[in-house]
Model the fold of this input.
Amino acid sequence: MTATLSVKLTKHARRRIGQRGITNRFLNALLTHANTEVSVGGGVVALSVTPSRAQNLNIDDKLHRYTALVSDNGTLISVIPLHPGHRGRVYRRGAQ
Done:
């Protein structure tokens, strides 16, 4: 049996999770196994799983392709797909 994380979701986060077809199991895995934390400004951090860790965990092929945006008080703001190249850079390297 898997323990479920108790995290507060914003209305925006609930809407985006539903639109993107993200399951509770996937969200729980993303938040539990995130090994990259990048400050993206305004007290928000982007939590993600590196491709090598995702492969070792063997939970979901898409785990390393999403990032969770979490506020400084622990509220989940959104879950977004990580884009390659310039579009996804701020969520991989942080705000400059």
Summary: Residues 11-93 form one domain. The CA atoms of residues 14 and 91 lie 20 Å apart. The first helix runs from residue 11 to 19. The radius of gyration is 13 Å.
